[in-house]
Amino acid sequence: MVTRKNDEAVSPVIGVILMVAITVILAAVIAAFVFGMSGNISKTKIVSVSGTRTNATSISVVYSGGQDAPSLNEIQYTVNGVNPTAASGRVNSTGCMYNVAPAAEGGTILTLPVGSSAFIPAPTPNSHILGVGYFNDGSQQVIFDTYL
Fold it and tell me: What's the pTM value of the predicted model, to 2 decimals?
């Protein structure tokens, strides 16, 4: 009489069932994590701003509009991290491109018109220009970030 010793602890069928169960549980945990995070992400606004260096001391920025143009109120610019004073155009003393209603309408900020432009001082070559757009819904988004 010959006895055979079986050293396997789990049969192959049970092993496959355990691997499938672990995979399903892992997929459910990952899906819950990923789908739970996406609820906090806001929609990206689509607007366009272009800029060019006009001379050694200033740049020209032009707001070109876009899909979300009707909801853009203002654009706040900084040059090398500092609010510039406008050389001309619709940029106030804090570097904000804006459209202000006439005093008869209360003087409030209105939607920024497409084609608005301004000359902003940028005295150093390769200045970092950053433009943040502020929208009707209270959101804000970087819409211009370049070195000129």
Answer: 0.62
